[in-house]
Amino acid sequence: MQVTINVNGEDRTAEVEPRHLLVRFLRDDLGLTGTHWGCDTSNCGTCVVLYDGEPVKSCTMLAAMAAGHRVRTVESLETADGLDPVQQGFIEQHGLQCGFCTPGMMLTARALLDRDPDPTDQEIREAISGQLCRCTGYLNIVRAVRWAAHHPTEATVTAGASAGSTP
Ligand code: FES
Ligand code: FES
């Protein structure tokens, strides 16, 4: 079957099997490898993308279910103006080590800040509670999101140095 999904502001079409997962569509069909796949049990949350603005685990959704909807991946965070404040926050507050969980964490943070520009630490912790970080711990991730909340217009042009956009 053919599906068309608006990904990062652009309509993208591919021929897929009905059982094809959204995470596979993004990674394998579109080459957007910033969306990571870390488990087979829907537990880790490293595959989180924004679906019509809300964080979803892309390993739990079929590509066909996303047809006609808007999906945003980590590759969209950096723009011509520079890094998203969330990306800058992860750099400033050392919010990552291996970076595997980072794309999903940053997208959840972006959705949270779009909804609530000044969340409490507890609200940040609740927002990321469905996502696991295997190495950093959560303190610096919370600090990174708080930093972004306090620097909402911060944009640093660092072409090619996006936090968390690596395969
Ligand atoms: S890959 Fe682990 S929850 Fe999706
Ligand atoms: S930074 Fe390694 S899993 Fe989170």
Textual characterization of the structure:
The protein has a five-stranded mixed beta sheet, sandwiched between helices. It folds into two domains: 2-76, Ubiquitin-like (UB roll), CATH 3.10.20.30; 85-150, DNA polymerase, domain 1 (Orthogonal Bundle). The protein has helices spanning 22-29, 85-92, 102-115, 121-127, 139-150; strands at 2-7, 10-15, 48-51, 54-57, 70-72. The longest helix is centred in the middle third of the chain and has 14 residues, at 102-115. The model is unreliable at 157-162 (pLDDT under 50). Helix 2 crosses helix 5 and helix 3 (102-115) crosses helix 5 (139-150). With 167 residues, the protein is an alpha+beta fold. The structure holds FE2/S2 (inorganic) cluster (2 copies). One FE2/S2 (inorganic) cluster binds at residues 96-102, 133-136. Keywords: 2Fe-2S, Iron, Iron-sulfur, Metal-binding, Oxidoreductase. This is (2Fe-2S)-binding protein. Residues 1-77 form the 2Fe-2S ferredoxin-type domain.
Low-confidence segments, given as residue ranges, are 157-162
Small molecules (ligands, ions, cofactors) in the structure: FE2/S2 (inorganic) cluster
Helix-strand category: alpha+beta
Q: How many domains comprise the coordinates?
A: 2
What is the name of the CATH topology of the largest domain? Ubiquitin-like (UB roll)
Distance between the termini: 27 Å
Query: Largest beta sheet: what is the strand line-up?
Result: 2-1-5-3-4
Instruction: Output the CATH class name of the largest domain.
Output: Alpha Beta
**What fraction of the residues are assigned to beta strands by DSSP?**
5-15%
How do the helices and strands follow one another from N- to C-terminus? EEHEEEHHHH
Helix content: 25-40%
> Over all CA atoms, what is the radius of gyration?
15 Å
Main beta sheet: 5 strands, mixed
Domain 2Fe-2S ferredoxin-type: 1-77
Protein name: (2Fe-2S)-binding protein
Keywords: 2Fe-2S, Iron, Iron-sulfur, Metal-binding, Oxidoreductase
Pfam families: Fer2, Fer2_2
